[in-house]
Design a protein that fits this description.
By secondary structure, the protein is an alpha+beta fold. The protein is built from 24 helices and 20 strands. The strands form three sheets. Strands 1, 2, 3, 4, 5, 6 and 7 form a seven-stranded antiparallel sheet that branches. The chain has a seven-stranded mixed sheet with strand order 8-20-19-18-9-16-17, sandwiched between helices.
């Protein structure tokens, strides 16, 4: 019975509405009392059924819900033979629930749109070398897949053959065509606009970037913010209090109609739905625009953030430094062989720059041992020689003699914004390299937008030398910038800013940023960053540049403002209804329920404005 009722709840609402309409028409036009009462009685009973079932379910778990209040109001009106009001109240409550579910469904459109473009098949290379169509669940890590023009890329992987242009809008929020060829990463859910790619699967199913986006957006939209938890707790006490007030009024006045009307007017429906609809719509907007908000809890903190702290490499800069100059003081070829041998073992951007520059027909020596010196570099045993690769401080701490020429050259490099890498072999200084990263496109423009939106502090923290840091600070118009910092120094700086009363957002992308991300009020990870950084973050910019950060910041502010507006509408409606009941003669149960349901629709429509929010 219960399953049947809820399955057909929309039809019940429609029938209830038709009966109410027939009753009103008969009352106003035909004037036959028996037909009018019959329409309203049947309408009341049919409309009451789903409401009563929900009320009983709530009482079974010892919760006095809105359904309980409305059920009592309908029964009370029916007892006093006010069939018109019992029918109208039941219909309006059901119709309000229908509108609520329909509009909430629209706010979750981001999930449906993402799910629609989720790949469900793949062209997999079989044991005989031929490619065959298989279900996406049959694809494993390491499988070789073929993607043709117009096809969806089914997994996260690496191109091993072919060339093409991929639309990555499902990941980044922007329909830009990105060129892909051998060695380049591709992501599930993106579309190959032209060309043909053979890829090796590296992540499949829910572990893909696309799968994680869907999962995290679902979790975020189902999570509850501090305001929602407060309202839930408030409703637990407010709803029984309303029932108690109605009962008290009846005991002292013996006016059951007044008591029943209080039950209707006191329903906190708009208050309960107003905050969730704002949060769900805001998170959905972010998902469609390449901004992954991991939960509604973070919206308030981000909206009030006044300080943004940025890591440098991979965040404000492209994260792909290049060797711009070098000077060798010992055997050049042998020095290149050793430094490439060592740096091939590292994922550091500066190491990759050296390998990219010099890894051409080099002799690669096996590494006997390595010791990473935090904030300094690497000490390695290669070809039976002790080799130091890192900053000048590392070499000086290991008693490597540096000539005035080397020190002056290092100062010139740093003044030009370069990072310094030096190498010594068996205690002798061998070479110095000037490496520089490029700032991201439109970085200054996006940082200026953050200032316009209310950010008062834009700060950069880096392990790079102060000269390079100062150059980027001036180029981007940052408030402050600090270099030569270890990961723990960054954490201490974040804590210091928080202790000074600032709400701090940290933006980073690497493993070394994870402690700072975890220490901040709002942790923001770049989408191309490490899994660790993304895991500890509150917000992920799926397009790995700053173009979406101002949108995310403005969206959080708009969502928080929208949430407060809905609370004001909800509370204001209840105050208005109760005041009208006390101080006027025109307020009754039907009008009260109509205004109550109108307020629910108002907060839903207000929240839905966030779906189309765009940064002006």
């Amino acid at each position: 019975m219960q399953a049947f009722v809820f399955k057909n709840k929309n039809y019940i609402t429609l029938i209830s509405g038709i009966l109410v309409g027939l009753g009103l028409i008969n009352h106003l036009v035909l004037g036959i009392p028996m037909l009018t009462d019959l329409a309203f009685i049947i309408g009341s009973i049919i409309g009451f059924i789903p409401i009563g079932i929900q009320a009983i379910g709530a009482l079974k778990v010892k919760v006095i819900s809105i359904d309980v209040l409305v059920s009592l109001a309908i029964i009370g009106a029916f007892i006093i033979k006010n069939y018109e009001e019992s029918a109208i109240v039941s219909f309006l409550f059901l119709f309000g629930g229908y509108l609520e579910q329909r509009t909430l469904s629209k706010t979750r459109s981001a999930i449906r749109e993402l799910s629609k473009i989720a790949p469900d098949i793949a062209y997999k290379q079989m044991d005989n070398g031929e490619f065959e169509t298989v279900d996406i669940d049959e694809v494993d890590i390491g499988d070789i897949l073929l993607v043709k023009t117009g096809g969806k890329i089914p997994v996260d992987g690496e191109v091993i053959k072919g060339k093409g242009y991929v639309n990555e809008a499902s990941i980044t929020g922007e329909a830009n065509f990105i060129e892909k060829n051998q060695g380049i990463k591709v992501f599930a859910g993106t579309i190959l606009e032209n060309g043909s790619l053979t890829i090796r699967a590296q992540k499949v199913g829910e572990d893909t970037t696309f799968g994680r986006i869907i999962e995290l957006v679902e979790e975020a939209q189902d999570s509850k913010s501090e305001a929602e938890r407060f309202i839930d707790n408030f409703s637990k006490y407010y709803t029984p209090l309303t029932l108690l007030i109605a009962l008290t009024v009846y005991i002292f006045t013996r006016n059951i109609e007044l008591a029943v009307t209080i039950l209707v007017l006191g329903c906190p429906g708009a208050l309960v739905i107003g905050v969730p609809v704002s949060n769900v719509a805001g998170i959905g907007n972010g998902a469609k625009n390449g901004v992954l908000l991991k939960g509604s809890e973070i919206i308030k903190s981000f909206a009030k953030t006044d300080t943004f702290i940025f890591d440098k490499t991979g965040t404000l800069t492209v994260g792909k430094p290049q060797v711009l100059d070098a000077k060798f003081y010992e055997g050049e070829a042998y020095t290149k062989d050793l430094i490439v041998s060592i740096e091939k073992e590292s994922d550091h951007p500066l190491a990759k720059a050296i390998v990219e520059k010099y890894d051409h027909d080099r002799k690669i020596y096996p590494i006997t041992s390595t010791n990473v010196i935090k904030g300094g570099g690497i000490k390695a045993l290669v070809d039976d020689k002790e080799v130091l690769v890192g900053n000048l401080k590392l070499l000086e701490e290991n008693n490597i003699s540096l000539s005035d020429e080397v020190k002056n050259l290092a100062k010139e490099y740093e003044k030009s914004g370069n990072s310094i890498i030096a190498i010594s072999i068996s205690g002798k200084f061998s070479a110095i390299f000037a490496i520089r990263d490029q700032v991201r496109d439109q970085a200054r423009e996006k940082l200026e937008e953050l200032k316009r939106l209310g950010a008062t502090n834009l700060i950069m923290l880096s392990g790079d030398n102060q000269g390079s840091v100062d150059n980027i600070k001036d180029e981007l118009g940052l408030t402050k910038a600090y270099g030569n910092l270890l990961p723990e120094d960054k954490v201490n700086f974040v804590k210091k800013m928080k202790d000074q009363g600032h709400l701090v957002a940290f933006v980073g992308d690497g493993v070394n940023d994870s402690p700072s991300l975890a220490s901040s009020d709002v942790a923001i990870a770049m989408g191309s960053g490490t899994d660790v950084a993304i895991e500890v973050s509150d917000l992920v910019l799926m397009k790995s540049d700053l173009s979406k950060l101002p949108h995310a910041y403005a969206l959080a502010k708009a969502t928080y403002k929208n949430m407060l507006e809905n609370i004001i509408i909800a509370v204001g409606t209840v105050i208005f209804l109760l005041a009208s009941l006390i101080f006027s003669n025109w307020m009754n149960m039907s009008i009260g329920m109509f205004v109550h349901e109108a307020s629910i629709l108002a907060v839903i429509l207000n929240g839905m404005r966030l779906i189309k929010f765009k940064l002006k």
